[in-house]
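RECORD TYPE: protein structure
NAME: Fumarate hydratase
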Amino acid sequence: MREIEAKKIASTVRDLCLEANTNLSEDILAALNKALARETSPSGREIIRQILQNAVIAKKEKLPICQDTGTAIVFVEIGQDVRIINGLLVEAVNEGVSQGYRTGFLRKSQVADPLDRNSNTCDNTPAIIHSELVPGEELKIGLLCKGGGAENRSALKMFNPATSQTEIDEFIIQTVKNAGPNACPPLIVGVGIGSNFDGVALLAKKALLRPVGRHASSPFTAKWEKALLNRINSLNVGPMGLGGTTTALAVNIEKRPCHISSLPVAVNIECHAHRYKEARL
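PREDICTED:
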């Protein structure tokens, strides 16, 4: 049995908050550079250049990539041979988020009461925590700082099980079209298919965690992802909604078995400021 101090979890989450908000990951940078090379719109190319320049400045100056530093969503994989000591997991995660957002002067966007906009929690807690027990004696922490503008454009639909793939395609594409400029494209489009009402939304969010450029392991699903990406990029929404051939950088689909009478589909929209980092303890 391996022991991990709760304070170590807190300090790791703190560091992830700072890193995720100031350092755009290499897969996103590579995808943006590829998009710059093939973008046909002059305004689209200029916007992508500015996004890349912004990322360089943010990393160098340790400044937020975007003023919306998001909701802290934490994915924890806990090895079954791990024991957390001198504290509780949830408390440690929230302490790390609190430290990260306060010491990094990151915008605190969480309101304590959804209907009272003046009830800010003042440290961006509580985090949304998803935990999973896995084999081994390692603890993996993934932190996604999810912006409100993109999250607001996400959608979920409980389809009839006889629904065709074409109808599902139209729902996904229409969701992106409805998002327009409000989700700050270029986007990453996470799609969940299967599970149930609550599970499919989590599938869609987990789809965002797959590195951009890495397709699903299933050849059928990988082909579907590429086809959807091509259709989305033909919408002419373009970078920041001003037209062009780069509306999305990736479409990632995650699937799970579901009840025979159900066909849940969720689309989780992510902006180009994809703030995800992970660590292993």
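COMMENT: The helical segments are 6-22, 26-38, 42-61, 89-103, 148-151, 165-179, 197-207, 219-232.
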